[in-house]
Each structure stands twice: as C-alpha cells, then as structure tokens.
Amino acid sequence: MAIEADFSGRSALVTGAAAGIGAACARWLDAQGIARLVLVDRDEAGLAALELGCTAETHAGDVADPDFWAALEPQLGQIDHALANAGIAAGGMIADSSFEEWRRILAVNLDGAFLTLRAAMRAMAQGGSVVATSSVSGIKPMAGASAYGASKAGLIHLVKCAALEGAPKGIRVNAIAPGGVDTGIWDGNADFDRMVVEQGREAALRAMASATPSGRFASAEEIAQTIGFLLSDAADNITGAVLSSDGGFGL
Ligand code: NAI
Q1: Which stretches of the chain are DSSP H helices?
Q2: How many Å lie between the centroid of ligand 1 and the Cα of residue 168?
C-alpha cells in the first residue's frame, strides 16, 4: 500500500538527492505536492537530470565541506523538512584500514550529517521535521564494517541529541536504519561487482540478500515512503526514534 501525505506549501532540504534513496525521496515529496525542494549532491549532472514538478533549487557540493554550507545557509530561507541522507559505503578490516579511509567515511557520513542537521535546524524557525539516513550497520556490529558502522551509530546518537534539542522548538528528528537497498551505493563493492559479472545484477542482489530474513533488498522507493512518513504530520508524536526497515536483517 502506498503511503501518502500532504506536503503542499512546504519546503524540504534533501542531501544525496541525485541518486538512490535521496532521489526517490525528492520524487516522493514532489508527488505529495511539496512546494519547494532544496537538493544537494556532489553529482551535479545527477541533480540536473531529476524531473520534478515543484520548485527545485539544486546545489552541487560536498556535504562534508563547512564552506559549502556557509555559502548555502543564507539562501535556505524557511525549511520545513530535511533529509540528511548523503553517504558513502566502504568495507575493510580494522587492521588493514588506513586512517585516511576511516576519515573519508566519517567525514561524509557523520561530519556531513552534522553540517546538514545544523543548517536544517537553523532554517526551521517555525518548527519542522528531520530524518537522517542511518543503517542497520549502525545498530548491528559487523566485521569489516567498522568505519561505516561507527559513522552510522554516531549518526543515531546525533539524531537523539538533536531530538532533545529540537523538541522545545517544534522540531522532530528521527533516523531510518535501512538494511540492504538496491541502489548504486553497491557498485564498486568488490564482492558485489564480482557477483554482477558472474551472475548478473538481479542474481547478485538475491545472493547479497540471502542473509536477510525477508530474502530481498528493499527498493529506494519503499525506503523513501517510510522516510516520508517520518517527515510527515502523521508522525507528529515521533521524535528521537530509529525506524528499522531491513527485512529483519538486524534481528
Ligand atoms: P547512492 O550512492 O545511490 O546515493 C548516494 C548519493 O549521495 C549519491 O548521489 C552521491 O553522489 C551522494 N553523495 C555521496 N557523498 C556525497 C558528499 N560528500 N556530498 C554530497 N553528496 C554526496 O546510495 P544510497 O543507497 O541512496 O545511499 C543513501 C544513504 O542511505 C547513505 O547514507 C547510505 O549510507 C544509506 N544506506 C544505504 C543502504 C543501501 O543498501 N543502499 C543501506 C543502509 C543505509
């Protein structure tokens, strides 16, 4: 069943909007009648390719760059909703990982989320709602996912602190923790790429989902609908929550 909500007259900031979950969320908010989207991604061409009916302001940049946000914040105006979603994935055992790789993941997934959250909360003078895209990796420890998992666990704590700080100002802040989602984030993962070459993408996705009780990865569109619910007025009493959408992988 499709989730629907009325976002008419509202504005939203979405990061990582050029692809995957962020793009699906931008399209979902557009379909729910949102008036204005402020879309951020480092992929300028991907942002330009989005076909949306609402007013869409696109900003190409790195969410982990404080100077990018310093330039964008004066242009934000009133923001009602935000999705702190831009993220990157990488694996590697701790003993084999470089400090540079650790910093690369933490910079985008945690520093970037902090800068997004800060900009959004400053622009929510009339209250609002924020969702941050965490991951089941931020809840369930997995060998080979220390940097990614730590960034997503840190994000969950950041969300809970932000929920406490936002509540008196009418700002709700929640996290979504997806399991595997069929997006481009998997491309470039050595194991996945090898399976795609050997079996094709569909079979590779099925194989990757074999450890998920539901036996499948989610689509970006179904994650976007769940994010949309958390952003919407239907979730008015929900703040500081972490909503898992992982087909049972975290169990
Ligand atoms: P994706 O790779 O399809 O989309 C991510 C988008 O973020 C891309 O458009 C990329 O250009 C942008 N981006 C990456 N680094 C950036 C930066 N420094 N500044 C600005 N934009 C940047 O991936 P997906 O799956 O849509 O990922 C969205 C979020 O969902 C990420 O935070 C990811 O960690 C999280 N997630 C994804 C899961 C999956 O299985 N796909 C599972 C759990 C969480």
Answers
A1: 20-31, 44-48, 66-76, 99-106, 112-122, 146-166, 190-199, 201-208, 220-231
A2: 31
Residue-wise pLDDT tens digits, 74-114: 999 999 999 999 999 999 999 999 999 999 999 999 999 99
- Active-site residue flag, 148: yes
Among 41, 68, 108, 137, the mutation site with the greatest number of ligand 1 atoms within 8 A of its Cβ is 41
Tens-digit pLDDT profile for residues 113-142: 999 999 999 999 999 999 999 999 999 999
CA separation, residue 2 to residues 12, 158, 202 (Å): 21, 30, 24
Question: What's the CA gap between 85 and 154, in Å, rounded?
Answer: 14
Q: Is 53 exposed, middle or buried (CB count within 10 Å of its CB: 0-12, 13-18, 19+)?
A: exposed
Helix (H, G, I), strand (E, B) or coil at 71: helix
From ligand 1's centre to the CA of 46, what distance in Å?
A: 13
Sole residue written with tokens 């009493």: 237
Domains of the chain: 11-179+217-245 (3.40.50.720)
- Pairing status of strand 242-245 against strand 171-178: parallel
Q: Report the C-alpha gap between 150 and 160 in whole angstroms.
A: 16
| pLDDT tens digits, one per residue of 240-250 | 999 999 999 99
Ligand 1 lining (C-beta closer than 6 Å): 16, 18-22, 41-43, 46, 62-64, 85-89, 108, 112, 133, 135, 178, 180-181, 183-185
Tell me which of 28, 148, 186, 217 is the catalytic residue.
Answer: 148
